[in-house]
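Bench log, entry 3. Co-assembly request; chain sequences pasted below exactly as received.
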Amino acid sequence: DAGITQSPRHKVTETGTPVTLRCHQTENHRYMYWYRQDPGHGLRLIHYSYGVKDTDKGEVSDGYSVSRSKTEDFLLTLESATSSQTSVYFCAIKKAQRTSGASSYNEQFFGPGTRLTVL
Amino acid sequence: QQQVKQSPQSLIVQKGGISIINCAYENTAFDYFPWYQQFPGKGPALLIAIRPDVSEKKEGRFTISFNKSAKQFSLHIMDSQPGDSATYFCAANAGNYQLIWGAGTKLIIKP
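Structure output for the full assembly:
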């Protein structure tokens, strides 16, 4: 399971409140990702990190911020939660990239998820 | 051009049958195509993956068929079992350390 934990696993909050989700890994991987999963949309990338203090936006980054002050922790913050942010949030890591010829690998491994409900 | 289109959305197969899920892409720069399996309440798990220089990859009952010219790839599950009931996602490596994901297929294997 690549040693990934997420906390909390479940959270119910009210509109307008700040929420922080935590992803913790034990294997020192450089790349970490936050996704949200909604029915009919599959997995959508929110933000990702390619090192301590190095982050970039994904396709659905509006309303979310991230921080990575240590290799092992990647935090996702909803500054002011809205009902549209009700979702299941997954953290993932990418194992060290292998290459073979002209191709590369992007093997991502996921945490157990956090179910967030914004009322 | 950055999309991966997956079909069908849902699929019901009899036990012992062959399950087939299809994905199509546009961007020829994609260079790695994984399939993930997700059970309810769990995170997606890497199932099998293929590179575009290979037309087929088999691991046990799971096979990826890859058609580079048609820009399509598919997952075949042979001798499908009730334990295979899950949601399956295809994806493609966009080359910037991001995966582009299909919308998912919910597979139900009827005993």
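The mean pLDDT of chain B is 94. DSSP finds no helices and eleven strands in chain B.
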